[in-house]
Write a structure and sequence with these properties.
Layout: E1 5-9, H1 12-19, E2 23-29, E3 35-43, E4 46-54, H2 59-73, E5 77-86, E6 95-103, E7 107-109, E8 113-115, E9 118-121, H3 124-136, E10 152-159, H4 170-178, E11 184-186, H5 189-198, E12 202-211, H6 216-221, H7 224-252, H8 262-266, H9 270-275, H10 278-291, H11 302-305, H12 319-332, H13 340-350, H14 355-363
Parallel strand pairs: 1-4, 1-5, 5-12, 6-10, 10-11
Antiparallel strand pairs: 2-3, 3-4, 5-11, 6-9, 6-12, 7-8
Length: about 375
């Protein structure tokens, strides 16, 4: 059952906040017995079919239900919309959209605890759109509180397996030490993005801030969760409206660029084909992150020596996330004079005996 948009939520109040955006929502039953709601979101002359899922709390539930829903609805865009806790630089009702989601609870417990973070970046196209909407504050016309009451930022989000209710907790100490770049903390975003990447889908997380770790129970009792869910749904609505407008413009544009013949596609450079493969890009980024611990910004590193720009990279992001972002930009264009071939040539010079680098070079035909 094809739907243009798939929205994943964890809680009933998040589900309801999104469902209020839709016209004529109807219940849908999956062959396994899972229950969804599906309706229409309209923006001007364009309409999207939108399916909504409620997963329950936790990364495991989010991963399982997203994995179940993706092949059923076959969406073009996928969003996780919900509430979260604010770690720094945000207030109740503000919005944090994921530049990346960091799973912070992996680690090695020896004499000294060593965190082993896992990261999934958001889709570049959706992240760029979210930055535009956040910068212009265009989403705020969809709420009644007035322009400037709340803000939205595209920043890292931390995801774990626990509700963090106090700054005095051990989990908060772990967060503060390991993922201090994160603005929000939650329990589903990492699990959501795992199948998104596996299925090569375009996905992003939108979180409304419902508490600030201090006085969490008092904030929840004051009605902050419905407020945060409403604001997150409003930001989603603005993103859908922008996507709808872009769809209309694309449909009405007369294209004069010739479509490549099949023979031309067949002779397309192997490096171009590989950069179009999300799983291969993911493996490339993870390999480079393991080799260059300072990241792409290292002056003597492969990225800069190969001609790559670094101005678009965020110093607050983890090294792995910087490499993910760099490779995504290389695939999109606009990363400077760098090419996939020049990047891997530099890496091969630096790590001649590394089997992973050798495999990557072989993949693109570098002997």
């Amino acid at each position: 059952m094809k739907s243009d948009i798939l929205v994943i939520t964890a809680l009933a109040l998040e589900f309801k906040a999104v469902e209020r955006l839709l016209i004529n929502p109807e219940p849908i039953r999956h062959p396994t017995g899972a229950r969804y709601s599906r309706g229409t979101f309209t923006a001007g002359q364009h309409a999207f079919s939108v399916a909504i899922v409620e997963t329950g709390a936790g990364n495991v539930n989010a991963a399982q239900e997203t994995e179940r829903a993706l092949p059923f609805f076959q969406p073009e865009y996928v969003f996780f919309v919900g509430i979260g806790g604010g770690m720094k630089d945000v207030a109740i009702g503000d919005i944090v959209i994921s530049s990346e989601v960091i799973h912070y609870e992996g680690g090695k417990a020896g004499d000294v605890y060593k965190p082993r973070l896992s990261i999934y970046p958001a889709n570049y196209e959706l992240m760029a759109l979210a930055k535009l909407i956040a910068r212009d504050a265009s989403w705020q016309h969809r709420i009644d509180d007035g322009l400037g009451t709340f803000k939205a930022e595209v920043k890292p989000i931390a995801a774990g397996e626990k509700v963090v209710a106090s700054e005095r907790s051990l989990t908060y100490e772990l967060l503060n030490q390991s993922v201090s770049q994160a603005l929000a903390v939650e329990m589903e975003g990492y699990g959501f993005l795992a199948p998104i990447h596996a299925h090569h889908k375009k996905g992003i997380v939108i979180r409304g801030i419902s508490d600030l770790l201090k006085n969490k129970e008092a904030a929840d009792a004051s009605g902050s969760q419905p407020l945060a869910a409403r604001n997150a749904a409003a930001f989603l609505a603005e993103m859908l409206a922008e996507l709808a407008e872009e769809s209309i413009q694309a449909r009405n544009t007369v294209h004069t660029v010739d479509i490549p013949a099949i023979s031309q596609v067949a002779t397309m450079p192997l490096s171009t084909k590989l950069l179009d493969n999300a799983e291969w890009r993911h493996q490339l980024a993870k390999t480079l992150a393991g080799l260059y611990e300072v990241g792409p910004t290292e002056s003597a590193g492969a990225w800069k020596r190969a001609g790559g720009k670094v101005g678009f990279l965020s110093s607050s992001s983890s090294i792995e996330a910087q490499w993910f972002t760099a490779i995504e930009r290389l695939a999109q264009g606009g990363a400077g004079d760098i090419t996939l071939s020049s990047l891997l040539q530099m890496a091969r010079e630096d790590f001649r005996g590394n089997s992973k680098v050798q495999i990557l070079c072989k993949d693109i035909g570098l002997d």
